[in-house]
Amino acid sequence: MIKVFASDMDGTLLNEYHVLSERTVKAIKALQAAGIEFIIATGRAYHSALPLLEANGIKCSFITLNGAVLWDQEGKIHNPTPIEYQEVLNMVDYLKTNQINYSFMSMDNIYIKDKAAHQTRMRKFFEEEAKRKKVDLSEISQAQLVANEKYLKSLDEYDLNPDHSPMKIMIFSDEAQVLQDFQAQFGQISSLDITSSAPDNLEITHKKAQKGIAIQAYLKEKGINMDQVAAIGDSLNDRSMLRMARYSFAMENGVEPVKKIAKYLAAPNTQDGVAQVIEAILAGEYQ
To answer: How many CB atoms lie within 10 A of CB 144?
Structure first.
């Protein structure tokens, strides 16, 4: 019996306009009314994820930064898992030596090297999404950029020390070889988890800061195991929860490695794939 439904956000819960559709909101509320807990599991920071749910009257717990921080329904933090300090120093040295763009993510802010370059990159992302999906994202993209701007800080402001190590590091490059070389250099370090949410990035967290591990730890306190969990996602940073959940769904618009891991295939986010899965669960199709 499914007691918990965990969903990724971008490319999964959010549609092509980067918002929750009316059908998806209705499905989530019906799920919660049926006594099944709904959890967000995202690579986003809390401040970026929360408003999209709050705007639709949905209250839930959030696993953020790929599993590095859990925020409960009351906004309280549980089990923050930063990257080990020495590994951060090693990676920063490599990134600076090779002039690779990167950012730090704390529980509260995003620390970036070049604010203008970051905003340009984000605008480019939304513009390319708009062209690919043939939709107008101008107002939505601008609104999200403005909303997140107050959380953007300079990397120079980050006080890196053994007691203040980042929760997540993001690396950006349009050159696949740059990302592959970094993966080759640091991919075998046992304390790190390196994944990706787009072709031009890598996301680094502590090995224990993965969506699946975070969900399992959160539910253990409630006496719920992963056999009672349904999880859905589209990107490489969703792999751990899809491997660990008994009912795992990959979005049709997801990457191939994720589709190979999941037990079931969901309709794409442009067709309210998450809502369709929830409706099927409530209809008793997955027991």
So the answer is: 18
Q: How far apart are the first and last CA of the chain?
A: 6
d(Cα 268, Cα 134) in Å, to the nearest integer?
16
Strands (E), the chain: 4-7, 37-41, 61-64, 69-71, 77-78, 101-105, 110-112, 152-154, 168-172, 192-195, 201-206, 229-233, 247-251, 264-266
The conformation of residue 9, written as its DSSP 8-state character, comes to I
Report d(CA 113, CA 151) in Å as an integer: 14
Q: What is the pLDDT of residue 18?
A: 86
Tell which residue, 170, 193, 172, 191, has the closest CA to residue 87: 191
Tell me if 214 sits within 8 A of 206, measured CB to CB: no
Whether the CB-CB separation of 157 and 115 falls below 8 Å is answered with: no
Assigned token pair, 202:
């890598």
Q: In this structure, is the dihedral angle defined by the CA atoms of residues 154, 158, 160 and 164, taken in order, positive or negative?
A: negative
Containing 103, the helix (H) or strand (E) segment is strand 101-105
Residues 6+ apart with CB under 8 A from 208: 67, 81
Name the pLDDT band for 127 (thresholds 50, 70, 90).
Answer: low
153 contacts 109 by C-beta, under 8 angstroms: yes
Place of tokens 């442009």: 270
Q: What is the amino acid identity at position 238?
A: D
Domains, in order of start, for the chain:
4-80+210-282 (3.40.50.1000), 85-206 (3.30.1240.10)
CA-wise closest residue to 46 among 68, 31, 17, 24: 68
If you count them, how many residues does the chain have? 287
Question: Running DSSP on this structure, what letter comes out for residue 239?
Answer: H
> Quick one: pLDDT band at residue 85, thresholds 50, 70, 90?
very high
- Please state, in angstroms and rounded to a whole number, the distance separating the CA atoms of residues 25 and 50: 14
- The gap from C-alpha 57 to its chain's centroid, in whole angstroms, comes to 21
